[in-house]
Amino acid sequence: MRVLAVTHGPRVGPELFADVIAEDGHELVEWEITSRGVPPLNGFDAVLVFGGDQNVGEEVDHPWLHEEYGALRWWAEDGTPLLGVCLGAQTLAHALGGRVAPVAGGQLAGFYDTELTDAGVADRVLGVFPRRFEALNANGFEFTVPGTAVELARGPVAQAFRAGERAWGVQFHPEVRRDQLLEWFEEDGPRLPRPLGELEREVDEKLPAWQELGRRLCRAFLRASGAK
User: Fold this and answer.
1) Domain architecture of the chain: domains with CATH
2) 31 with 5: CB under 8 angstroms?
3) pTM score, whole prediction
4) Which residues on adjacent β-strands are paired with residue 30?
């Protein structure tokens, strides 16, 4: 398969997902939309859209967001397998009519109790997670599930949804590496809900098991996209 990874900057790439895609013998094409504009809409068997420090509602500062919304709507309507992560889930939700706004309780950083809905348990991608798990969040904005979509997981914020049969959005980060994550937390500084040292200890304790779930999620998405 030929997989497109849309990124929003140099430190928010496919990371562990890139490893899985390579290990499974697929081709990965990375496309930084912030500098290159909208990628080609055709020619890919699956699309991944990752995080970023930009936000829905900042289109004046980041006019390429309009192009991203249009591309996401096109892929969703076309039936192209699509997975949005964090900002990618928020832009997908917005493109499909959901609402994106700052998290009411402030920045989320660390692991949070999360539960699959019944639809999530039955879902061919999110269903690879246990019914209850701790999800790694690093976000100051959240989405509402679009009216045409199905909620798959919930925690302190809506954590996952599916639109149609082949478009998924997850608020949590299943793709991250340790150094990348701690760099995000360090930059968040005073917005963090807990001291950086405490978050670092939690990451060291819980990240390895979380990364294994992330690899499992990526492979489930590839299978759902048509990989053998």
Assistant:
1) 2-224 (3.40.50.880)
2) yes
3) 0.97
4) 5
